Amino acid sequence: MPRPGRPMLARLRVRGWLQVRTPLHVGGAERDPNGDLQVAVNGRGQPYVPGTSLAGALRAFAEGDRPPAERLDSPWGYVMPGTQKGTASRVVVQDALITNTPSLGKDGLPDDVLDPAQLETRVSVGVDRVSGTAAHGFLHGRLVVPRGAYLRLELDVESTPDDLGEDRVWLGRLLGALAEGRVRLGAAKTRGLGRVELLTEALQIHEQRFDNRAGLLAALHGDGGQAWTLTDLRPDQDQAVRQALGIEIGWRPAAPVMVRSAVDGVAVDAVPLTSATSPTQVAPVLPGSALKGRLRAQAERIERTVRALDAPTAGDEAGPAERSAAFRRQLDQLAAVRALFGAAPAPRARDTTSNPASEEDSRGVGAVAVDDCFATSSIPAEVWNAVYCVPGDDPQAAGEPQGLDPGAREELARYGLEQADHVAIDRWTGGAAEGRLYSVLEPHGLAWEPITLTVDLDRLARHRDVSADAALALLLLVLRDLKAGRVPLGYATNRGLGDITVDAVTLTFPDQRGQVELDEFLASPEADRLTGAWCAYIDGSTP
C-alpha cells in the first residue's frame, strides 16, 4: 500500500539578500588556470552558491544554535543509519546567484550577475617551522567571490498548523543569526572567508495557508500571504545558544604592513594584496589565513619554548614525501595549538567498518576564526591597475626595473602607496649584486579595520587532548604578546616591515561578563584560574 505524501498546509516563505562581508569560496568542478580550487558556476557559467551548499551551512548552524531540548530532525530531515526510516527535509533552499547589486529584473530574477572575470585569486602556503620556507605540497590557490557581492536568498519552510509555531521560532533564530553576521558559508571559514550578513531592510517573510479556500486562492493569485517581520519572529531577542568569545584588536601600523600579492606587478615587483570592496574600488587586505598563520606560529613558539621542544624535521636528505610528512607532524605536535587553530584529518584506510569518532574529537577545524582585515580607504580600480601596466613606450635595458610612471606614482602616493627600491650588496665589489635590485610598493599611513577573532567555546570544550581553559590561556598569551608589539604581521617582517602598535584588545564574552579589556582580564582572578590550567597542561597532570 503506498504511503501518503507529506502534508503541507502552510508555508513560510523568505526572500531577501545576503551581502558578502568577507570573500567567499564555494567550490565547483570547472577548471581554471588561475587557481587550483574553483568557484561553483551554473550551466550558464554564472557564479552561484548551490542550494545544497547553502542548506547544509544553514542546517549546521541551526543545529548548533538550538536549545538542547529542541530537535530539528523534522524540518531539516533525517535518515536513521542502517534503516529505511527517516523523512525528507521540509526546508527548500534555492540556488543563490551571486550579483553586484541587490536588484531583481522584470522576470523576478537577479539582473546584475557577477562576471566571472571579477573573481579573485587567493594563494595559501604552509611555512615549514624549521626552514622557514614553503612546505612541500602545501601551496595552492583558490578563486573567491569578492567582498561586497550579494547572494539572492530564497527559502521556503513547508509546514502544518501543528509545526508552524516551532518553525517560526527556529526560523526567526536562524534569520537573526544571519542578520548579525554569525553564519559563514563555503570553505576556509576560520581563515577569513565566508562571512555573510542578511540585509534586514530588504527581507520579506510571508506565511501562506493552504488549509482554507481563501488561502489557496491567494497563493494561486500570487498573494504572498500574511507578512511577518524579523522582530515578529524574535519578539524576545533570545540569546544565542552557541557559545562564542569575540575578540576585537584595534591597531595601527608602526611600519608598512602588507601581505605580498602572489601576482607581481609589471611596473613594480612586489605589490600588496588587494581585494575588491565594490566593482570599481579595491583596498589593501591582510587575509585571515595570513593573520591566523601568524598567530598560530606565535602560539607554537610559546608552547615549544616552555616545553623546550624542537619542531620535527625530515633531515637534509629527505625526499618530498618525507618533508611533507614532517610538516604535518609539526602541525600535529602541540595539542593546545591544534585545539585553537586546527589540524588536518589523519589519512584513513579504506575501512568503512571502523569508527573514527574518537580521533575526530582532536582533529579538524580549530576553534579560532580570523576575519580578513581591510584598509579603511579604498583605491579606484583604474589607479590600482597602473602597477600592472608597462610604463612608457621605451623599455629599459633587460633586467632593469622600469618603475612606475611618474603620473601613476604620484596618483598612488595620494592613497598611501609609495615605491621603495631595494638592492643586495655584492660582498666583494661593494656594488649592487647582479639581478638583486627589486622594488616594493609599500603602504604608508593607512588606517585599518580592527582585527576580528571569534573563538568557538563549544568546539574548544569538546577537544579530547587539552582542556578548554588551558587552550584559552595559550590564546591569551598570544594576544598579550601581540599587544606588547612582539608579533609583526605580513610580508618582510625581518626586513623592517610589519611592526604594529595595538591600542586595545577587547574580549566579548557570551555571558554576563560582556566586554572586558585584555589588561583588565589578565589582572582578574579568572586569569589566575586559566594560568593554573595552563601550568597543569604543561606539567602533564591534566590534558
From TrEMBL:
InterPro entries (UniProt xref): CRISPR_Csm3_endoribonuclease, RAMP_III_fam
Pfam families documented for this protein: RAMPs
Keywords: Antiviral defense
Superkingdom of the source species: Bacteria
Residues covered by the CRISPR type III-associated protein domain: 18-197, 282-498
Gene Ontology biological process terms, A to Z: defense response to virus
Subunit structure of this chain's protein: Part of the Csm effector complex that includes Cas10, Csm2, Csm3, Csm4 and Csm5.
Protein name: CRISPR type III-associated protein domain-containing protein
Organism: Carbonactinospora thermoautotrophica
